[in-house]
Design a protein that fits this description.
heterodimer, A: alpha/beta, Double Stranded RNA Binding Domain, Arc Repressor Mutant, subunit A, 2 domains, four-stranded mixed β-sheet, two-stranded parallel ribbon, 6 strands, B: mainly alpha, 7 helices, 71% helix, globular
C-alpha cells in the first residue's frame, strides 16, 4: 500500500481498505481492455499461448497480427520494444487474439496447413519485407533454400540478407521462415532455436 | 530518458492504488466507474505523457477530475446526495474492517475525504494535493489531518456501538 511511512498509525487506520475483493482488479482490467478496443485506443493487444515449442507471445494491432515471440526472446522485452517502436498503448487482452490462438492450436494439431489471419507488417521494411511477403508461398511441408528465397524476392545475390530477414521475422510460425533451410539441407539458424525449427519441420513432414 | 513502458504495466502497478482512491472519494458504488473512466482516459493520453512524468501523480489528477464529473452527474439526478444508497457490493470479507473504514471515509466532508485519499492512499505530497484541491499546501495538510482525526472518532464510535449491540 502506498502510504506515508512517517505516519505508521495512519497506515494502520486505513489498512483495511486494502482488503478489497480480490477479483475486482481482474474485472476492471477486462472492462478497460474491452472499452479501449471499442474506442480504438487499444493499439496493441497481447496474450500468450502454450505450444509444443514453448510459450508463444501473440500481439496484434487493429490491422492484424504484428508479432509472435518465442519464450527465449523474453516476452517482457518484446513488449517493451513494441511500446517503443509502435505504441505504448498496450494491454493484455485475449479476445483480439482468439482467432490466432485457435489457428495455432489447429496448426500444432496438424489439422491446419495455412494461416488465415490478417497480418500487420509495420515492423518490417524494404527487402526484409519482400522476403517475408514471399515466405507464405512456400507450401506446408516444403522447404526452400536461402538462395531460392533470394531469387524469389527479386535479389538473387542477397542470400545473406535473406538469412537476416528470416532471423528478424516478427511473425515466426505464422510467416513460415522455418521453411527456409541451407542449400546443403541442414536446418540453419532459427530465432526460436534449432530444436524448434526441427520440431516444426517434423510436424509438417508427418 | 527512460523509454515508456507498455500501458499494461501502468495498470498493474497503479491500478490498486487508483481503485482505493476512487473508493474513498466516490464510495463503493461509483468507484469502479471512476476507475474505468480514469484508465480509459489515461490510456488515450498515454503516448503524449512526457517520459519523465510522475505517472502516479498523473493518474491521481485524472481520477480527481473524473470523480468530480461523476459526482456532478450524480447530483444532477434526483437522489439524496448525503445518503449513499445501500446496495450489495463485492467489497471485502465482512468483518475485515474494509466496509467500516470505507463508510467512515464516506462520512467526511469532501475536502477532507479527498485530502486523505490523495495524501495517504495515493502518496501525493501535500503540495500536489493542494494543486488538485485549490488552496495552500498548509490548508491541504490541515484537511488531511482533520480527516484522519474525524476518521478515528467515527471508527471508535462505531466500534463502541458495535460492542454495545453485541453485549447483552
Amino acid at each position: 500500500m502506498t502510504i506515508h511511512h512517517d505516519e505508521p498509525d495512519v497506515s494502520e487506520l486505513l489498512a483495511p481498505l486494502d482488503s478489497a475483493e480480490p477479483g475486482a482488479m481482474q474485472r476492471l482490467h477486462d472492462r478497460l481492455a474491452a472499452a479501449a478496443a471499442e474506442q480504438h485506443t487499444l493499439d496493441i493487444a497481447y496474450r500468450t499461448v502454450d505450444s509444443p515449442i514453448g510459450k508463444l507471445l501473440l500481439a496484434a494491432t487493429e490491422r492484424g497480427m504484428v508479432r509472435v515471440a518465442f519464450e527465449v526472446e523474453d516476452h517482457d522485452a518484446v513488449l517493451q520494444l513494441l511500446a517503443e517502436k509502435l505504441s505504448p498503448r498496450i494491454l493484455f487482452s485475449a479476445s483480439r487474439l482468439d482467432p490466432a490462438a485457435r489457428e495455432l492450436d489447429e496448426y500444432f494439431a496438424g489439422t491446419r496447413h495455412r494461416f488465415d489471419l490478417p497480418l500487420d507488417f509495420s515492423l518490417s521494411r524494404g527487402f526484409r519485407l519482400s522476403v517475408l511477403e514471399h515466405l507464405p508461398q512456400i507450401a506446408y511441408g516444403h522447404t526452400e533454400s536461402y538462395a531460392q528465397v533470394a531469387l524469389a524476392a527479386g535479389s538473387p545475390r542477397a542470400v545473406r540478407a535473406v538469412g537476416t530477414a528470416c532471423a528478424t521475422n516478427p511473425l515466426p510460425v505464422i510467416v513460415p521462415c522455418h521453411r527456409v533451410v541451407k542449400s546443403d539441407g541442414s536446418f540453419g539458424n532459427y530465432l526460436g532455436g534449432t530444436e524448434a525449427k526441427r520440431a516444426l519441420l517434423a510436424l509438417e513432414a508427418a | 530518458m527512460e523509454p515508456k513502458k507498455p500501458f499494461e504495466l501502468v495498470v498493474r502497478e497503479h491500478g490498486p492504488m487508483v481503485l482505493r482512491v476512487c473508493r474513498a472519494v466516490l464510495g463503493a458504488h461509483d468507484a469502479e466507474d471512476g476507475w474505468s473512466e480514469t484508465f480509459l482516459s489515461a490510456l488515450k493520453a498515454y503516448p503524449e505523457l512526457p517520459p519523465n512524468a510522475n505517472v502516479q501523480a498523473w493518474l491521481v489528477t485524472i481520477a480527481h477530475r473524473k470523480s468530480i464529473d461523476i459526482v456532478r452527474a450524480r447530483t444532477r439526478q434526483p437522489v439524496p446526495v448525503d445518503e449513499l444508497p445501500v446496495r450489495p457490493s463485492g467489497l471485502g470479507i465482512p468483518g475485515d474492517g474494509h466496509r467500516e473504514v470505507l463508510d467512515a471515509v464516506g462520512q467526511l466532508p469532501p475536502k477532507q475525504r479527498q485530502a486523505v485519499a490523495y495524501h495517504y492512499l495515493a502518496g501525493l505530497p501535500y503540495k500536489d494535493v493542494a494543486g488538485l484541491l485549490g488552496g495552500t499546501p498548509d490548508a491541504a495538510r490541515r484537511a488531511g489531518a482533520d480527516g484522519v482525526k474525524a476518521l478515528r472518532t467515527i471508527l471508535v464510535d462505531s466500534s463502541m456501538s458495535y460492542v454495545k449491540e453485541e453485549t447483552p
